[in-house]
Write a structure and sequence with these properties.
Layout (H helix, E strand, L loop, with lengths): L6 E2 L1 H5 L4 H4 L3 E7 L4 E6 H17 L7 E5 L4 H13 L2 E4 L6 H11 L3 E5 L1 E4 L2 E4 L1 H10 L6 E5 L13 E3 H6 L11 E2 L5 E4 L9 E4 L2 H13 L8 E4 L6 H13 L3 E6 L9 H9 L1 E6 L1 H8 L16 E4 L6 H11 L3 E3 L11 E2 L16 E2 L4 E5 L14 E6 L9 E2 L3 H8 L9 E9 L5 E6 L4 E3 L2 E3 L1 H9 L4 E11 L3 E10 L8 H19 L7 E5 L12 H8 L13 H12 L1
Parallel strand pairs: 2-15, 4-5, 4-6, 5-12, 6-9, 9-10, 14-15, 14-16, 16-17, 17-18, 29-30
Antiparallel strand pairs: 1-11, 2-3, 7-8, 12-13, 13-23, 19-20, 21-22, 22-24, 24-25, 26-27, 28-29
Helix pairs in contact: 3-4, 5-6, 8-9, 11-12, 14-15, 16-17
Bound molecules: adenosine-5'-triphosphate and magnesium ion (MG).
The site of magnesium ion has 3 residues, from loops.
């Protein structure tokens, strides 16, 4: 518990607190290259919209402590909805708009919301993605039924309103134009929201966040890590369905008195210059994206990155997955800006590892997300002995000695037992928070993330991180992306198997050519890491299975390779990708 006994409100800190000093400054800049709508809201306008939304929630019977599920595309109303919830002390549970009925139903069941807020449709790559039938089906599948559904009608798809349950946002907003809804003061420890992890390693966990600790952590990170100042513009390319969207599209920038860009669209549409065009137009000073997006841009014409005036931009922050050195070097060079990796989890709400240039200037080392952020007592633990590893460059489990600093999860929603048994299960009698990631620390205190603890490959007694082998393979000039998994082997215990996406697939279009390239890449690994790390097979595919948040689903690939059931796949992006793996394995 942080700041126990205090009272506060997240919406007050994000919006109302700025009205006197920066009421007319931009707060929310909504840009959709899908619908060609661009609209900026000042803090005053945002304040008015949030109060209208809050009034609607209250009219629909939402009370302090009630859950409100938000299943929406990246539109301004989603931001109003999140802020309106915390304004009245309701707990939001944002579900990524790209999820289908099944994933949505389990989250409805888990959060038991009084109200669901949704929209008729999202858009992706110029195509309408209708939401309503998925939502109706999810409610049908769930044993819990919300009393009301509030629908934002964008005029993109059919609404099929359900009599007595579905409410029209535009109509209710019109009736509340001048409503005043004061902030409801809540205890510091009052839950602000529930958010599910990406489901990369198993069934997603419902992270429960507090109020005051979170606000303090975000305000601090804005100064000390991201170096964003009030009055500047922050642009995070994530989605509100993920933790980066919660912390650094909505709450962090607004608490810091910054304008925030909410972008609906692809990074390469209308062309690969769109993000940089926005940087120029809105004088973005801090940008936050994911390595997976950087890799998408890497496949495009690099001249788009230099076409616009980027002088306002101080740095590009990347997080969510290991940032490989070739990608970091490439984008850093193309933009001529510092690239800053930072490592964290849905659970922590803000970075565990980063370079805190706002505290003390430190150089970046590519391949490393930096040092432990103040507040996190990070230790590397030897899995076999449970002892802390103090020696440099020795691999161990990344753990945090409690208590966790402000901003981190309070518990797993509705399941304290799962919280304790999942995260605080002792590593050889040492009760610590486990990140379930594996890493090393160098002489200077910089960490390197080697992969998930589940992904450690044990080849004839040698323990290897998937990351090391992937990094080595991706140093070959024709490899765009690669996933390495450990596969059970009678002789060696486990062997590494790689699945690579090529920049130019024609090089491996025949069986003989593929074998030739496989041998060349194996030689690369031999030379860099030694024969022990050499994958038993390198197979070429056109796409890799990922979660909707862009993370490699190694556990599913591994299961397929070992002929096992692939487990919970509700958060998977493209089922065809896993099918390709299946085909290539049985081939
Ligand atoms: P689940 O917990 O449901 O299996 P998940 O761990 O992928 O899913 P997230 O909270 O979205 O869910 O992701 C956090 C994980 O992402 C970290 O534990 C780590 O494995 C990885 N990660 C995040 N940032 C970095 C980074 N900068 N470098 C390397 N890995 C990172
Ligand atoms: Mg996780």
């Amino acid at each position: 518990r942080w700041f126990a006994g205090g009272q506060t409100n997240l919406c007050h800190n994000a919006v109302d607190r700025h009205l006197a000093t920066r009421g007319d400054q931009n707060a929310l800049i909504f840009v959709s290259t899908e619908t060609n709508i661009e609209k900026a809201y000042s803090f005053k306008e945002l304040h008015a919209e949030v109060q209208r939304m809050a009034a609607i929630l209250k009219d629909l019977g939402v009370k302090k402590g009630d859950r409100v599920l938000i299943y929406m595309p990246m539109i301004a109303e989603a931001c109003f909805a999140m802020l309106a919830c915390v304004r009245i002390g309701a707990i939001h549970s944002v579900v990524f708009g790209g999820f289908a009925s099944h994933a949505l139903a389990s989250r409805i069941e888990d959060a038991t919301p009084t109200l669901i807020i949704s929209a008729d449709a999202g858009m992706r790559g110029g195509k309408v993605v209708p939401y309503k039938h998925l939502l109706d089906e999810a409610i049908r599948l769930s044993s819990h039924k919300p009393a009301n559904v509030l629908m934002v009608n964008r005029g993109l798809a059919d609404l099929h309103p359900v009599e007595g349950r579905d409410q029209d946002y535009a109509t209710l907003r019109q009736a509340n134009m001048d409503t005043v809804v004061p902030c409801e003061w809540v205890d510091s420890t009052h839950p602000s929201y529930i958010l599910y992890t990406s489901g990369t390693t198993g069934k997603p966990k419902g992270v429960q966040r507090d109020t005051a600790g979170y606000a303090v952590a975000l305000a601090a990170s804005m100064k000390h890590i991201y170096m964003g100042n009030p009055g500047e513009t922050y642009f995070s390319t994530s989605d509100i369905g993920w933790v980066v969207g919660h912390s650094y599209i909505i709450y962090g920038p607004l608490i810091g008195g910054m304008a925030t860009i909410m972008y609906e669209g692809l990074p390469i549409r209308p062309d690969a210059g769109i993000w940089w065009q926005l940087v120029e137009k809105y004088k973005v000073s801090v940008m936050f994206s994911a390595p997976t997006a950087a890799r998408v841009l890497k496949k495009q014409d690099p001249s788009y990155l230099t076409k616009y005036d980027l002088s306002s931009l101080k740095a590009l922050f990347l997080a969510g997955e290991p940032l490989d050195v070739p990608t970091a070097t490439w984008i850093g060079g193309a933009l001529n800006k510092p690239i800053i990796d930072n490592y964290w989890q849905t659970e922590t709400g803000w970075p565990i590892m980063a370079i805190c240039n706002g505290v003390e200037q430190a150089p970046t080392k590519f391949g490393s997300p930096g040092k432990a952020v103040y507040g996190f007592d990070v230790q590397l633990i030897d899995e076999t002995t449970g002892e802390e590893i103090t020696e440099a460059n020795k691999k161990g489990v990344i753990a945090v000695n409690g208590p966790l600093p402000p901003g981190c999860l309070q518990t797993v929603w509705g399941d304290d037992k799962r919280y304790v048994s999942t995260y605080w299960s002792s590593i050889h009698n040492k009760v610590m928070y486990s990140t379930f990631d594996w890493g090393v620390k160098d002489e200077d205190g910089y960490f390197f993330i080697l992969g998930r603890t589940d992904d450690v490959i044990n080849v004839a007694g040698h323990r290897l991180g998937t990351r090391e082998i992937e990094e080595s393979i991706s140093s070959h000039s024709n490899v765009a992306e690669v996933a390495v998994v450990g596969v059970a082997d009678q002789l060696k215990g486990q062997v590494a198997v790689a699945f690579a996406v090529l920049k130019d697939p024609s090089v491996a279009s025949t069986e003989a050519d593929a074998q030739k390239l496989e041998a060349v890449i194996m030689k690369v690994v031999d030379d860099q890491l030694g024969a022990v790390a050499r994958p038993a097979r390198i197979r070429f595919v056109t796409v890799l299975p990922k979660t909707r948040s862009g993370k490699l689903l190694r556990r599913a690939i591994q299961a397929v390779c070992e002929g096992r059931d692939a487990g919970d796949l509700t958060t998977m992006e493209d089922p065809a990708a896993l099918q390709q793996i299946k085909d290539s394995v049985t081939h």
